[in-house]
Amino acid sequence: VNLVESGGGLVQPGGSLRLSCVNRGDTFRRISMGWYRQTPGKERELVAVVPSEGTTMYADSAKGRFTVSRDIDKNTAFLEMNNLRAEDSAVYYCYLKRNLFPTPYWGQGTQVTVSS
């Protein structure tokens, strides 16, 4: 597995960004894929994840503003972020976990900064 993220950057409050993550390594069918984020001194936290089965999970802070999606055939996940706030500033990490395997895979992270 080799997760490569893109799409981060600087945006003003109220703006939008779209993050992309492509798996350029070994691929699997039964996986969860999505996004976490982390700020200095804090634990990495879930933003949104699409499971292989069941309901997509969103952090409360992301509901109504962020949309996660995935293209299984292209081994890609996306995070559409709207109405961004300063508190959304973080390093965003792509996440992939195989079903029944305990350890997830992570991308290298992409910085999102929301500031005027």
Structural class, please? Answer: mainly beta
Biggest sheet character: 7 strands, mixed
Distance between the termini: 36 Å
Strand content: over 45%
- What are the low-pLDDT stretches, counting only 5+ consecutive residues below 50? none
Based on DSSP secondary structure assignment, what is the total number of beta strands? 11
What order do the SSEs take from the amino end to the carboxyl end, as H and E? EEEEEEEEEEE
Share of residues in helices = under 10%
Compute the average pLDDT: 96
Computed Rg: 13 Å
Helix segment count? 0
Q: What shape does the CA trace take? A: globular
Summarize the structure.
With 116 residues, the chain is mostly beta strands. The chain is 0% helix and 50% strand.
Q: Helices and strands in order, then pairings?
A:
Blueprint: E1 3-6, E2 9-11, E3 17-23, E4 31-38, E5 45-50, E6 57-58, E7 66-71, E8 76-81, E9 90-98, E10 105-106, E11 110-114
Parallel strand pairs: 2-11
Antiparallel strand pairs: 1-3, 3-8, 4-5, 4-9, 5-6, 7-8, 9-10, 9-11
Q: What can you see in these coordinates?
A:
The chain is an all-beta fold. 0% of the residues lie in helices and 50% in strands. It is built from no helices and eleven strands. The protein has strands at 3-6, 9-11, 17-23, 31-38, 45-50, 57-58, 66-71, 76-81, 90-98, 105-106, 110-114. The strands form two sheets. Strands 2, 4, 5, 6, 9, 10 and 11 form a seven-stranded mixed beta sheet that branches. The chain has a four-stranded antiparallel beta sheet with strand order 1-3-8-7, with no helix packed on it. The protein is globular and about 40 Å long. The relative contact order is 0.32. The mean pLDDT is 96.
